[in-house]
Give the backbone structure.
Amino acid sequence: MTAGDETNSMIQKKKETQHRHPITTNHTRLLLVFLAGALFGGSIVFRTTRRYHINQQQQNQQQHNDDTSLHLLKKILREQNKIDDLLIKHDEISLLSSTPIHHTKNLRLATTIDNDDDTTTTTDNLTYLNTTSAIARLGVSPKHSHQYYLLENGLDAQINQAFCSVAAAAAVLNSLRPRSIANLPLDPTYDPYRYATQADVFNDCVGESVISGPEGILTPPFGLSLRQVGSMLRCLLPGGNDESKQEEGQQRSRWNVKVVNVDPESVSLEMVRNDLMRALEDTDGVDSRVLINFHRASIGQVGGGHHSPIASYHPPSDSFLILDVAKYKYPPVWVSAEMLYRSLATVDTCGSWDYPSGQSRLPEDWKTQSWGDFNNILGCQYEYRGYIILNRNVE
């Protein structure tokens, strides 16, 4: 067999093989592409599935964390609500000014929801300091408005809903700062600048004669009475209870703290108006200040007993400006002298009590006790609300 014949024989065998197995080169390529695609697609499906499970686990963990946080928040709110309920019960009770305090057996209780009571005034007679016309009142009688600018400069919103008295006291101290006529505390936050915060007013004198500390205000009877605020200011002002607070080189001052309970049988509207007007006529803003303890519902607001400074008087409307320390709730408001008088001539059901030692007699589970139990333990006595006037005597 020649070389040519051998070559022809091989070609013939190859053709016969192709005839028996018709898988061409193109078919093989297609099969390989298909297999590669299947492997690649499987890899994508695997990665996608794995990523889904990881995301699902993360979402489940986040949901668990959220549920845990929500549970803790609800627990905290439940505890706070127990205290809030007690505060509401305390705030809502006010004895009307039309009956003297020694006839308490016959007094009718006024609450913030007693809308049919003829002593409740609507907000139609209130002018809030959030309009141009309301602000313009400050310029009508400058001699009665100077203290507004000094008080506003150092007034912070009360840090909780029981600290109105503390916020009012701190605002008064800060309003005396420009003339350095009071020894303000040096808070580490603002060192070396003196500024009274609501944490700074609890000095040793306050702890011994007024309230045990911040926690005492959050304990029955909650907040401070008019009498207690007067005692706190005596502790904080030079020449009050602690004359050693007078700093060297400072003009020697002695502050008189006058607490007036507005008993309608002995204190008239005219007396209150004259007292507040004279205190506000301090044109230099250095010799007097006014704080009030009034009942919100009596002027048409929501709430009960509350403390705030008086910052101005507007003769044409015969109205006083309450510089509300609950700034999150109400802006400053002009209130007629008559309406203000009625809100002062209400009774705090625990205006006088065995403070501060009385709180040490409260049981550990006091949150489960009734308000009547608190009154008996603390020795609460009815006392009219009213106002405090601070006057400075220079020696």
Summary: The first helix runs from residue 3 to 20. The chain has a mean pLDDT of 77. The longest strand covers residues 305-314.
